[in-house]
């Protein structure tokens, strides 16, 4: 099939490359000339494991191409995907749909013959209705079927998620679209990936409901972690104990500094706004957002508490800046609030992240960036693990003990077992581990 992908950002680029790998002919379209020029040079604008090789392979095979031209590829396409951004709108938190609606107008002017137009972007309930209205208003004779097909991609595992999905949700109002969308996803359908056809509005809400539920699950275990610290229980054992229940499941039950990224924060907020507009408030999600917002700075207070309540003039080494490992995405990353709070307390922050430092420079000021964990740990009063990159899972604590100014590890991802770290002469502070932070006086710093 011939596919036009409007938008070459995270969703558009990953989806386009994967569809091309299925054997379809895909043209990714973007108005950002610099981005398209870079893609045509083989440069990938985002960090996603395996994406560079997948793009290169399909470009070489002639199945994937990139252009700023709109009309030609859309006119030739059997299916046109809208994969543009829907950021939170300033002022009210609603999803900004201006890019989606602008794409709909341009598509209407260019399509020829029957065309399935698919909203891949995350959009509120009823957006598909408006997309169809705009297109028919722009060009009444247009023969289209507007479909909702939300993405469920995890940054850092997007290609695997696309090719081995838990489910594929397709919302249709025109039965002609069923056969087309089945053909688009035929390789997955033949491998028995669940292909769930619903109404268009049901599909749109499914995406928001999924992300909001996962955000709520993360927030739930974070609150249980706080309780563990008060009563002397271990949140990791609790996570395992409840996660083995098939009705609950173990995923997203890892206590930490709160959720971030490009999806959960904006999608949870957009769902709240949609619910309020329809006089059906979602109180659990409203509370989830509030708890998550306050949790990030609370993690900074945990660091400050471990240093006798004062970080003024102290050097804090921060490991990990991105909201999760295997991505360069800094959007709503917990590290932002944590670092700002530490700086508000007068701390000198040194940071290292395998992929996120360039993006961090545009968001945070007065940080000294290093080349490795050991580079930033030199003379540090505390080593704070904020993002659980694999290279942080096997730190040389004997080396750290000799170079740090004070042997203190604040592990906000519970990467390490407390006894393992303490064995090397460190004080250890984790999340929900049921023990009071062991404060290290200056006099007991590394020899």
Write structural notes for this entry.
It is a single chain. This protein has 447 residues and is of the alpha/beta class. Helix content is 43%, strand content 13%. It contains 18 helices and 14 strands. A 6-stranded parallel sheet has the order 3-2-1-4-5-6, sandwiched between helices. Helix 15 (357-361) links the parallel strand 10 (348-352) and strand 11 (367-369). Helix 1 packs across helix 3 and helix 5 (98-110) runs parallel beside helix 6. The N and C termini lie far apart (67 Å). The model is unreliable at 436-447 (pLDDT under 50).
Strand content: 5-15%
Q: What value does the Rg take, in angstroms?
A: 24 Å
DSSP summary, beta strand count: 14
Low-confidence stretches: 436-447
Q: Largest sheet, described in full?
A: 6 strands, parallel
| Terminal residue distance | 67 Å
**What topology, given as strand order, has the largest sheet?**
3-2-1-4-5-6
Q: State the secondary-structure class.
A: alpha/beta
Give the overall silhouette. Answer: elongated
Level of helix content? Answer: 40-55%
The residue-averaged pLDDT reads 95
Summarize this, please?
By secondary structure, the chain is of the alpha/beta class.
Topology:
Blueprint: E1 2-6, H1 10-21, E2 25-29, H2 33-40, H3 51-60, E3 64-67, H4 71-76, E4 79-82, H5 98-110, E5 115-119, H6 127-138, E6 144-148, H7 158-163, E7 168-171, H8 176-184, H9 186-190, E8 195-198, H10 200-231, H11 235-243, H12 264-277, H13 283-306, E9 315-319, H14 334-344, E10 348-352, H15 357-361, E11 367-369, H16 373-377, E12 382-385, H17 397-403, E13 408-411, H18 418-422, E14 427-429
Parallel strand pairs: 1-2, 1-4, 2-3, 4-5, 5-6, 7-8, 9-10, 9-12, 10-11, 12-13, 13-14
């Amino acid at each position: 099939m011939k596919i036009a992908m409007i938008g070459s950002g995270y969703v558009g680029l990953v989806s386009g490359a994967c569809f091309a790998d299925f054997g379809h002919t895909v043209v990714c379209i973007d108005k950002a000339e610099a981005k398209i020029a870079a893609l045509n040079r083989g440069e990938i604008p985002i960090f996603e494991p395996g994406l560079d090789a997948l793009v290169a392979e399909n470009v070489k095979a002639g199945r994937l191409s990139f252009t700023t031209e709109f009309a030609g590829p859309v006119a030739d396409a059997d299916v046109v995907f809208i994969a543009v951004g829907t950021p939170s709108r300033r002022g009210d938190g609603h999803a900004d749909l201006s890019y989606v609606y602008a794409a709909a107008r341009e598509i209407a002017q260019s399509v020829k013959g029957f065309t399935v137009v698919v909203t891949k972007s995350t959009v509120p309930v009823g957006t598909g209705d408006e997309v169809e209205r705009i297109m028919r208003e722009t060009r009444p004779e247009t023969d289209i079927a507007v479909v909702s097909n939300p993405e469920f991609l995890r940054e850092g595992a997007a290609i695997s998620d696309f090719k081995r999905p838990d489910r594929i949700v397709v919302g249709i109002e025109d039965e002609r679209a069923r056969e087309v969308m089945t053909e688009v996803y035929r390789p997955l359908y033949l491998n028995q990936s669940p292909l769930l056809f619903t109404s268009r509005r049901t599909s749109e809400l499914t995406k928001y409901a999924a992300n909001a539920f996962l955000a709520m699950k993360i927030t739930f275990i974070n609150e249980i972690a706080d309780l563990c610290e008060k009563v002397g229980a271990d949140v990791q054992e609790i996570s395992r104990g409840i996660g083995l229940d098939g009705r609950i499941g173990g995923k997203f039950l890892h206590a930490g500094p709160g959720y971030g990224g490009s999806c959960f924060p904006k999608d949870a907020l957009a769902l709240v706004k949609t619910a309020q507009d329809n006089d059906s408030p979602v109180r659990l999600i409203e509370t989830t957002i509030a708890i998550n917002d306050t949790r990030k700075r609370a993690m900074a207070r945990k660091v400050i508490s471990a240093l006798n309540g004062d970080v003024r003039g102290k050097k804090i080494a921060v490991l990990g800046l991105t909201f999760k490992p295997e991505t360069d995405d800094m959007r709503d990353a917990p590290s932002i609030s944590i670092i700002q709070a530490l700086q508000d307390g007068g701390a000198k922050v040194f940071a290292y992240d395998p992929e996120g430092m360039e993006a961090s420079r545009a968001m945070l000021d007065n940080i000294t960036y290093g080349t490795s964990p050991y580079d930033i740990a030199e003379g540090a009063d505390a080593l704070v693990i904020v993002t659980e990159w694999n290279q942080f899972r096997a730190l040389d604590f004997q080396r750290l003990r000799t170079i740090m100014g004070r042997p203190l590890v604040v592990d906000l991802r519970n990467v390490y077992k407390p006894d393992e770290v303490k064995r090397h002469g460190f004080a250890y502070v984790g999340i929900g581990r049921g023990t009071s932070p062991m404060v290290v006086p200056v006099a007991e710093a590394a020899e």
